[in-house]
């Protein structure tokens, strides 16, 4: 099964935007690790906005 290209772009953009990491650094992450960062960023954003 291949991971949806659009979803991969969304994850990379999300992590890059919030952590200012480069493309290579983000793509070097294993998929579960990258998803963990996405979830953590979402949690931090929710805490910051009170949602």
Automatic annotation (TrEMBL):
Residues 3-46 form the DUF6760 domain. It holds the Pfam family DUF6760. It comes from the Bacteria. This is DUF6760 family protein. It comes from Kitasatospora cinereorecta.
């Amino acid at each position: 099964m291949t991971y949806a290209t659009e979803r991969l772009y969304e994850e990379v953009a999300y992590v890059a935007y919030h952590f200012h990491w480069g493309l290579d650094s983000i793509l070097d992450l294993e998929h579960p690790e990258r998803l963990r960062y996405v979830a953590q960023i979402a949690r931090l954003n929710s805490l910051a906005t009170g949602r």
